[in-house]
Protein 1
Amino acid sequence: MATKPYTREGMPVIDAKSDLKIQITKADIGRADAKDPARCAAAIALKRGHFQDAEVHLGRVFVRSNRGNWQRYVTPKSLRDELIAFDRGGTFEAGEYTLLAPLPSQRLRHKPTGPKKKKGKKRRPRHVIKNVRPVA
């Protein structure tokens, strides 16, 4: 059974093959809007680089290249913490951040390891972070 390819704005999304370092400057932070994945400081820094478009979410970063596709990265914890602080009215710290290539288990079309066996334990309720940008 073939899986349907993941798309964003009609263009295919592929997992990044390697990590990507970005430099976020004070000018990027000054132009940023809180709670907007397309107008945050990291997205502005990516657009200032070699990319046409970018969206930075709490868990994933989507970057559109000139090749006509979106690359998907994992948001590092350091950047995620800055996003949460900025979305809640705090400051964003300028510096270098490394967007992570997804691990095999985080890839869009990873091969499952097999059927999961249900255990008798109840799952812990999921914690939802409030008053921040929407989840991708």
Protein 2
Amino acid sequence: MNRWNRIIPAAFLMYTIAYIDRTNFSIAMPSLQKEFGLDSSSTGMAAGIFFIGYVLFQMPGGYLAQVWSAKRFIFWALLVWGIFATLCGLAQSYEQLLVFRFLLGVGEGGVWPATVVLLSNWFAPEERARANGFWVVCQPIAVIISSPLSGYLIEHYSWRAMFIVQGILPLFFAALWWWAVEDRPEEATWAKEEQSSTARVVTEPVHSSGGRWSFLRYREVWLLVILDLAFACGAYGMLMWLPSTIRSLGLKDNLLIGLLSGFPYVFAVAGSIYNSKQSDRKGERRFHVAIPCIGAGIALICGFIASEHIPALGLFLICLTAAGIYAAIGPMWALMTEIVPKQSAGLSLGLINGAANLGGLAGPYMVGSLHDSSSSFLPGFLFLGGSLITSGLFTLLLKRRSSSADSS
């Protein structure tokens, strides 16, 4: 079980740090609005511009992880994004903040598809929902940890201190990553006893006819692009604007807002682990993605409406939303690795996640823009809920790729 105890924890810690450095912005938004005189649309742009830089390196990152080294690519990414995460705390103007947020996205770009490629090298198809599910638990864990920590740092120091303190974490972690991870079982001296059991992972047949770019003609790849884009709109939009929404209910204490913002993600951890295990146990992917997405979208809309009249019920429904979002991620990425053509897996996954992260820009921006035009968060959260429902419906349109698809 060395690979479960070494590869998964390393990937988990690495992406926990990445997620803290990208999402701590949500807690800082009210302070940034006050210091730089920003309206909701400008704030949403500052939150979302990260994803423009992030998208640019999705396909290169996935490609380099496949043909060069996921380990080495992620090592250098840790150093780059750590520098720009720290510089966000030194921004002296809105324009500088935009530049540093964009370059932070460049630094983190490609890390997600590179990690998916790494896990695919280490875990067989029937294990991947659990592997991806255990790994992506880092996202809600990051929110649970960083929300109160970020609130504390802002409350007692400043938003600048928050960015700087959390920005130096990847610089220290890079050394641990280099020591802990290898690209494949046969490269790891500590995994010798597991190489026979993992041989089927790295010796999956690769069909090379059609070239690396042949994936662009597959219907399923484009369906995955659309569903993941819609999914990211809903997931990141909720994540970025939830603290501001809680503040709009009349709360002022940053630490309390941080704690309440992180609470739904406790449910997310349980949803991710349970649904990933069920998906692997039953060998089913589509409904283990679609049902949580549709349920999350409905719960998000109902939760926002309820929060104005029955705050406790609203918070509970938001908790169910977070559980549904993260329940879908493990099976979703297991499904993707089963569908995309093997010879262009890195490029395919980079395209899908790159398009998805345009949703990371669109979701926060649309909520801010709709709030400016209506003075209410309701239209924005209707958009986010509808995006999650759309993602679930598109999942139901997917078909398993036949073995002949690779050679067509």
Protein 3
Amino acid sequence: MAKQLWLLRHGEAVPHGSRDSDDARELTPRGERQAAAAGAALARLGVELAICFTSPKLRARDTARLACEALGVSPVEDDKIAREFDLELARELLDAGDGQPVLVVGHNPDFEQVVHDLTGARVDFKKGGVAGIRVDGGRGELLVLLRPRELESLAIASG
């Protein structure tokens, strides 16, 4: 049975070096808008999530929180997403959805690599962007890759 894995890269954050720790970098106002638009767009597309997993880094946590407001789920933190998100972890998190779509909020370059590992596609995964992947057995099919501007257009159309 095919499953759906949705990946949301955190929204725009304050620059590297602007905080004592990379983990403490927060979203900019633009990043907050990107996160809210991603959630609204996914809801408009009819994505009904079983669960949302997020990196514990502040910018990812806040992206997940804002996006999930429109999706009716509460994000669950998983430290491994921040440090070692790979194909194996993606499959593990997807299995936790029990056949229902799963959203993971995290970081590059890990997201681009997982998309490639599942689908063979090379993508330019923008901050605040979304990829939807249909996973059936060992391989995946890239259903959609949406940039923040496209997500915002979908979100506005729903509001």
